[in-house]
């Protein structure tokens, strides 16, 4: 068993029930986050959620919140969330203000939950994880998507990086 898979399992068993949804940082300043990602050469995991979405609360509380507190994952990716129904404003890569729902539309996000990894240029890295097909396999899906994002940062010409 890979060490990272082991970490996910330990986090899900040990911290998943203690995690409280809503404590991930909202995406508020994409321009600043992209600069930080460029410096660290890491991707951003963007969690698109909705207040009415039961699975969104499950994903955040049982998977994303524990991972964001894990040192290994905090060094590998920047965690941010974007509400599809909150009406909050964020600063774009160009420094403009935009509603979170309009930001999601720019990436063709139509369903919640959706996880998408963005590179330091603001472009998607690999395919998004849309919905929850299997709760038992979801942690592995996140890990695979993160590995793909990291591979795409290293070599954008890989087949799985096609945009």
Using only CA atoms, what is the Rg?
Answer: 15 Å
Q: How far from one another are the termini? A: 31 Å
Portion in strands: 15-25%
Q: What overall geometry do the principal axes of the alpha carbons give?
A: globular
Widest beta sheet: strand line-up: 2-1-5-6
Helix content: 40-55%
Instruction: Report low-confidence residues grouped into runs of 5 or more.
Output: 9-22
Counting H and I runs of at least 4 residues, what is the number of helices? 6
Q: Biggest sheet, in brief?
A: 4 strands, mixed
CATH class: Alpha Beta
CATH topology: Glutaredoxin
Summarize the structure.
The protein is of the alpha+beta class and 163 residues long. The protein contains 6 helices and 6 strands, in the order H-H-E-H-H-E-E-E-H-E-E-H.
């Amino acid at each position: 068993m890979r060490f990272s898979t082991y970490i996910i399992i330990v986090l899900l068993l040990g911290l998943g029930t203690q995690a409280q949804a809503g404590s991930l940082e909202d995406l508020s300043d994409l321009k600043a986050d992209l600069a930080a990602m460029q410096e660290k050469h890491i991707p951003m995991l963007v969690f698109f959620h909705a207040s009415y979405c039961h699975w969104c609360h499950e994903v955040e509380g049982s998977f994303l919140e524990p991972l964001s507190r894990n040192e290994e994952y905090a060094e590998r990716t920047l965690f941010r969330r974007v509400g599809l129904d909150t009406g909050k404003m964020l600063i774009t890569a160009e420094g403009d203000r935009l509603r979170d729902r309009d930001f999601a539309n720019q990436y063709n996000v139509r369903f919640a939950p959706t996880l998408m990894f963005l590179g330091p240029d603001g472009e998607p890295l690999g395919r998004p994880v849309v919905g929850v097909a299997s709760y038992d396999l979801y942690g592995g899906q996140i890990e695979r998507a993160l590995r793909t994002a990291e591979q795409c940062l290293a070599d954008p010409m890989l087949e799985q990086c096609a945009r």
